[in-house]
Amino acid sequence: MNKELIIKHLNNLNYKYQLEIDLLMELKNKPTNELHQAEIQINIAYYEEEIKEIKEIVESLKNNHFLN
Q1: Do residues 21 and 48 lie in contact, with contact meaning Cβ atoms separated by under 8 Å?
Q2: What's the predicted TM-score (pTM) here?
Q3: DSSP symbols for 3-50
Q4: pLDDT per residue over 8-52, tens digit each?
């Protein structure tokens, strides 16, 4: 598998995670109980961390730090 294909798949995963965050943000604005709100916030934080890690990997790939 070449580097460009890996980057493409990682960018698509980032896009999917961003859509999940957008959906969760909409849910967060609807009235629910505190437990549900906490669960939504945990999921948002999880996806934000995943996006951050994926962006770091993509940058490393683009800069040829691994998978030469």
Answers
A1: yes
A2: 0.83
A3: HHHHHHHHHHHHHHHHHHHHHHHHHHTS---HHHHHHHHHHHHHHHHH
A4: 999 999 999 999 999 999 998 888 899 999 999 999 999 999 999
